[in-house]
## 1
Amino acid sequence: KQEVTQIPAALSVPEGENLVLNCSFTDSAIYNLQWFRQDPGKGLTSLLLIQSSQREQTSGRLNASLDKSSGRSTLYIAASQPGDSATYLCAVGGLNFNKFYFGSGTKLNVKP
Amino acid sequence: KAGVTQTPRYLIKTRGQQVTLSCSPISGHRSVSWYQQTPGQGLQFLFEYFSETQRNKGNFPGRFSGRQFSNSRSEMNVSTLELGDSALYLCASRGMDGQGNTGELFFGEGSRLTVL
């Protein structure tokens, strides 16, 4: 069964810092990987989707990479801002891509 | 293009009652999945529907059920509510690959259920 782990569980950084969030998965036979952001009490907002054939995706200050062979993905946030404070979750889509496996998230706090 | 719409946003029920939650997916999306989110367990998959058929089911008791209509709107029902059913219930829709979509998951804002 696919297991998804996100480390660290929480992270606090000063504004302006570049940071990396990690996501690891146990089964490299994946269909895609998606990063989400969740604000307290809200739904999940899609940030980036990486197909299994891709190595990275970029959107603004965000860059996500995927290394299937090592079972790892990273989300890089450049020049962090207080508005980036939220919980970030990664989800791995299985080859039976009807199922998605979620990590428990990294709670990010960016201090002004 | 409208996003995923979930109703109601908040509701309070008492133990033993039942509840029905509704989800309207993004227009053109035929896959709808449901998740339960609690502080202790995180996001847990409930079930997924595609073209009115349940394709996958998570490890939840039979009190949790769902259905999908011909217009892709979906409902989930929880019967005989327990205190532990208090959670944020999230619905996600997805356009299927091979139909000009990427397979990306889009979530609604959720329905916050409190069981007293």
Note: The CA atoms of residues 26 and 43 of chain A lie 26 Å apart.
## 2
Amino acid sequence: DGGITQSPKYLFRKEGQNVTLSCEQNLNHDAMYWYRQDPGQGLRLIYYSQIVNDFQKGDIAEGYSVSREKKESFPLTVTSAQKNPTAFYLCATRHPYEKLFFGSGTQLSVL
Amino acid sequence: KNEVEQSPQNLTAQEGEFITINCSYSVGISALHWLQQHPGGGIVSLFMLSSGKKKHGRLIATINIQEKHSSLHITASHPRDSAVYICAVLFYGGSQGNLIFGKGTKLSVKP
């Protein structure tokens, strides 16, 4: 079945630690996105990539980094510079001018 | 400032009722998305539209470009429709990565 796989479902970060969230897709979509969701707020764009080896900052990129070495994969690293990382993180993909497809999300918490 | 406003914020209905959720935006758009987020966090894309009306099963989405307003209707509502419904828009001139999301409408359908 085609889809998006996010892992892990739950992740805990210690102070000063970098953690990486995985996003893999087999939909053959060029565009991939990372969003952050906080309670009572709309989804906010962290980073997006429209092609392999290229990505753009979103509205809240500070403290995060990404890579796009393969079309299928778009991992997000939450660095120690992100002082408030507790949130629900969603990965999404789409063809241009078509609907979005979302992964099941990763809940990140701070120990 | 490009903004997306949803109403109501919370909505409780009895099974079988006709439901309307509203989305208003501030400037011209090239596309509007309706999304459904279930309690587990996963998001499903319901509709993408830029004009007129779309229907899928008991769900109907309409958009009025002149009034900068979209509605999502659910006919014969059922408890399984309980979820958060999110409107997202791509404003004219925005990159394909720059969807702006509303804060969502939390719907609860009682049996």
Note: Chain B has a mean pLDDT of 92.
